[in-house]
């Protein structure tokens, strides 16, 4: 089948996911975004720039806690795959995880005042480890549930598009936190984050509960649970079968490269804004600029994702993913000229260009994993959405852990010293800007080259699904 012929397929009525169910599932991503971005984006401004903790210590906590999170993912994936309940395999865990995550996220920012550097470090370490265990309980079944809402190739992309667009509400919240904790009424960002953390924790719990109550699996996924039609599979064999799939290995490589490119320098946006654009002045204007920039990026993302999802129906997921990666590369390169003291508002432009590209990248990658689950079922006769979700999350978090640990050193290598305040060496500011631009460009470019050899185009996926349907009919006859 030629690529131009792929658009001829129409999603069967029974495989279409109702609007309200897509909304219910997507709402849970608000919690996911608040949790991940909340820790990643505010750890350095609060614990390093406000409380004086060495950035290397902050990066070790962030990297170590994500490594801990990654280690628990495959265990959670196997557990949720083997769960049997009248509410399905995923939703009971999502409800539990949402409650625990909301409480533990708030606790990270409720540190006692007047601690030493090691005291703040210890508080951040312990609360982060507990929080990311709760996050695993929530995130693994949540991602797996998205793979079970529809068996259709294009409908899977539609589900992930809803998820990405709705997730921007959580991203709006993160951007709003920048403004909130920068208000003059607070003595420091650390004080403001106490209140913001509590409000975010409540929203995390509420949004996760919406998914648990209103996002039900497709009937085909539920029917396999009846009468013990699915045998429980051992953890080690399930893990082995998952990681051996070639297309999955390529997708993992793309994921890791994207993460390294973005996470290594993500925190530098704050430092470049404060110490290059505003010459070290931590005014309320810093929070306003970062909040507005984040909100504008999220709006652009919400506009771009449905457009790219529609393009995907014409040229397939891989072609659209390539376009998204190119947008991300261009946006990263623009940081060099747009982050400028002469016109601070130009710093919003790279985020506009990158937002749609990055959002589409994660949307399409997550929509491609269920296609690999189909291939795995063709090879093994088993379905393990939970394990694929967990292993992809495991690798994702290992990449995040590595990037976060190294990110603290990237800041140190630039020559930045929090004790100098506005008197930073200009060479340090130059290297912060350079790393901020060039590292993502290199990493995403390599990921783009990997995409060129990815084998599961739409025509191949439909062949796999047709063969699975024949097997099902033969088994029932």
TrEMBL record:
InterPro entries to which the protein is assigned, alphabetical: MFS_2, MFS_trans_sf
GO biological process, one term: carbohydrate transport
The keyword Membrane is annotated on this UniProt entry: yes
Top-level division of the source organism's lineage: Bacteria
Gene Ontology, cellular component aspect: plasma membrane
Annotated Pfam families: MFS_2
UniProt-recorded Gene Ontology molecular function terms: symporter activity
SUPFAM superfamilies: MFS general substrate transporter
Residues spanning the membrane: 93-111, 123-145, 165-181, 193-215, 250-273, 285-309, 321-339, 345-369, 390-410, 430-454
Keywords, sorted A to Z: Membrane, Transmembrane, Transmembrane helix
Gene3D superfamilies: MFS general substrate transporter like domains
Entry similarity comment: Belongs to the sodium:galactoside symporter (TC 2.A.2) family.
Protein name: MFS transporter
